[in-house]
Amino acid sequence: MLYPESVWNERLDLLKAQLRPWKQTHQQMFRQFVSEAEVVTLDGNGRFLITKRLQKIAAIEQDIQFIGMDNTIEIWSPKNLEQTLKNDEEFGKEFENIMNNDDAQ
Asked: How far is CA 79 from CA 31, 51, 53, 66, 85, in A?
């Protein structure tokens, strides 16, 4: 997931609002969440490097897909993305339910 700095800060504030600072499990969750983050800087041509560590986590070998998700960008290996997508029929049914505000399936 690629966040603009302002969105990242909003997400951190939202997470921190849900956590209790003296509860050990909450501190562990926060620590793990922020420890995975990396600051990305663009080079002179507007490109950025996806580190080897993140490539391994995302199972990125050669090709990648960028998916715009509102105010963030998801970065996927095509194989992993395909595994998360629903078939056309399932997608159509769920989309119809959402658009009709029908939570019951």
From this structure: 30, 19, 18, 13, 10
Residue 89 dihedral angles phi and psi, to the nearest 5°: -65, -50
pLDDT tens digits, residue range 14-25? 999 999 989 999
Q: Report the predicted TM-score, pTM, of the whole model to 2 decimal places.
A: 0.73
For the chain, give the mean pLDDT: 90
Strand, helix or coil for residue 77: coil
* Number of neighbouring beta carbons within 10 Å of residue 85: 9
Task: Please report where in the chains the tokens 């963030």 appear, as a residue.
Answer: 72
- Residue 75 tokens read as 């970065």
Whether 40 and 2 have beta carbons less than 8 Å apart is answered as: yes
